[in-house]
Amino acid sequence: MSRVGSRARTTIELGDSLERVLGGKSARALESALGLSTVGDLLRHYPRRYAERGELTDIAGLELGEHVTVLARVDRVSGRKYRGNPGARRGGHILEIVITDGHRSLTCAFFNQQWRERDLRPGRTGLFAGKVSSFRGKLQLTHPEYQLLESDGDLSRLEEFAGALLPVYPAAQGLPSWSIARCVRQVLDTWDGLDDPMPEELRERLGVDRLDGALRRIHRPDGWADVEAARKRLKWDEALAVQLVLAQRKHWAVHRPAPACPPRPGGLLDAFDARLPFRLTDGQREVGAAIEADLSGAHPMNRLLQGEVGSGKTVVALRAMLQVIDAGRQAAMLAPTEVLAAQHARSLRELLGDLGRAGELDAAEQATKVVLLTGSMSTAARRQALLDIASGAAGIAVGTHALIQDRVSFADLGMVVVDEQHRFGVEQRDALRARAGEDASPHVLVMTATPIPRTVAMTVYGDLEVSALRELPAGRSPIHTAVVPAGEKPGWLERAWQRIREEVAAGHQAYVVCPRIGDSAGEEDSGDEPAEAEAGRRPPLAVQEVAPMLESGPLAGLRVDVLHGRLSPDGKDAVMRAFATGEVDVLVATTVVEVGVNVPNATVMVIMDAERFGVSQLHQLRGRVGRGDAPGLCLLVTDMPEGTASRDRLDAVAATLDGFELARLDLEMRREGDILGAAQSGRRSGLRMLSLLRDEDVIAAARTVAQEIVGEDPYFATYTGLARMVTELVDPEGAEYLEKT
Ligand code: ADP
Ligand code: MG
């Protein structure tokens, strides 16, 4: 980090290693438990919340597997002996401490540590830290670490407790919150501060504190006012960093040249419209007009089209592609999986009819050709597809990411459609834009069925124009959703299988979705964890175990088949085809059926271990039923005990079909910082204070400020501090902040 020469050299800087300041042991613990290696990493490891004098932590909505720190009172203590099972586990003693927040309680279990009874007496208060597991349907902490207080609510014994608020940090097994607080204090004691990356005029205009003050106060606040002020500054930094990058991207994107594709009267699009078997909805018309105008221009379209499952996005995309073909160019359509790519190719050909059969005997006069290109086609088929794409014979190329990752050469690529954007990161978006060669970028239309809250639209998709299809074409059927608590009410699960039999008897079909494929070496460790207390989580249910169980049990006699990502592309295609034509009654599948699969005759979906899926994912999944004229039923099967956050989430999914509401919930359930963070890549993102749920105001304001700054100084020549801030908070490569799940 560069320093102003005139200032005295500070003892430590954000880039310094923690080892230098804290010594090897603490530094190693922070690195291995939390991946924190520099002073900056630690100072940016903000408290998750603060404990307040005399207030116990609300023990509600705990998440299984989560590491928690709670301030609670010991309520009851009991000890008992247990017998071991021969050959497996020796017997011993369990000490069970029930702690409470005054309303709810949580059991802490200690094995063969009877002596702890001396400390953990009823009425004592302390911080308890550990991983939440479940045992016999109840939540518990096994061998939690704890720090007891002298008297109820008296935090003063804790040396890290500076003012009225005690920071509670995201912690890990072996590194409790109070140890992190001690390290932070040690660092802050020797830290002199830094040059503020935000110019003073801007700070004044936004009404935010200096950064070093904010960093100090977030860790050691004197009161809530300190916390608020510190949060405000830290949020502004994050919001502004993201918006600056997006404003820059957009600036570059809209100034690039693109192949102009004005509509051609009497062309393929007109021919298609003339024989469309239905009336476009108002939404389809409106979005269609916006796209038509974009495509006619000399700068690339960058548009996101969101619309609920079944809202008719495909027709909108096809009409856009036809306009591009009318202008003498080609269009590519990308899908997240081979199954979907194949299905898209099929449905585009169907929609086009003889307008899509160029080169065949019965082709219409101005027909074009739709080719499918996937990573694993036979060499011959692949060669033919590549030839058609290179020669321009194919007006539309459909494929998976392979279409842009391979060195596929297009005769004249005018537009790229990306279906189901939520699987598609910004890097792919960039790779796409580079496809059309140096002199022009193709127009890009991305489509998603996941409703996008405004804040997400402004951040994750901030470089795109957003339009939405809000109404469904007429004739859709309602979907009813219910939670099936298999643990508490096994009878309900039997009833679920019976429902499938009834639907099949009535001529319909069903999906059973499992979180895992199963039966693969090294896919999951089956985990031999006989310890009673660890019995919290079994491995997720697998397609390859559930399918035979159903075939030989509750669904005996029905035609059951499986679909998952490890089948060969031909195998997948064959299964999908058999299901589509009704030769298979029940499809047991992984989330490969999540997006885009369209079999209107399927009316029931049973989702096993439903809590393993995200809210939006569940919503997508259930969109596979109720696509025909019969109503759809979706059953969410779970073992999660009542009162867990997971169970609450499933109830919420069952309670509403409002995609926007669910998208909000989905945001809520992600941990702070994960929202924009590059969690998958294992890289730390600097964004952890900003909440897409609560900080709409800051995000919107930052967007405006960022656009001003980029408008006047697109390369940050006069804003070197801000450029540095973007690099630190967003990512060295500048793209990792975008959500890629
Ligand atoms: P999405 O991709 O948005 O989930 P699709 O484009 O697959 O939805 O459309 C779902 C179904 O509705 C398709 O069979 C499609 O042909 C049909 N469809 C699309 N637009 C209309 C419309 N305006 N009126 C009637 N049916 C429509
Ligand atoms: Mg679709």
UniProtKB/TrEMBL annotation:
Swiss-Prot/TrEMBL catalytic activity: Couples ATP hydrolysis with the unwinding of duplex DNA by translocating in the 3'-5' direction; ATP + H2O = ADP + phosphate + H(+)
Keyword set, alphabetical order: ATP-binding, DNA damage, DNA recombination, DNA repair, DNA-binding, Helicase, Hydrolase, Isomerase, Nucleotide-binding
SUPFAM superfamilies for the chain: Nucleic acid-binding proteins, P-loop containing nucleoside triphosphate hydrolases
Domain Helicase C-terminal: 492-668
GO biological process entries: DNA recombination; DNA repair
Pfam families noted in UniProt: DEAD (PF00270), Helicase_C (PF00271), RecG_dom3_C (PF19833), RecG_wedge (PF17191)
CDD domains: DEXHc_RecG, RecG_wedge_OBF
GO molecular function list: 3'-5' DNA helicase activity; ATP binding; ATP hydrolysis activity; DNA binding
Stretches for region Disordered: 518-538
Main enzyme class: isomerase
E.C. number: 5.6.2.4
NCBIfam families: PRK10917.2-1, recG
Similarity remark: Belongs to the helicase family. RecG subfamily.
Record-given protein name: ATP-dependent DNA helicase RecG
Species this chain originates from: Gandjariella thermophila
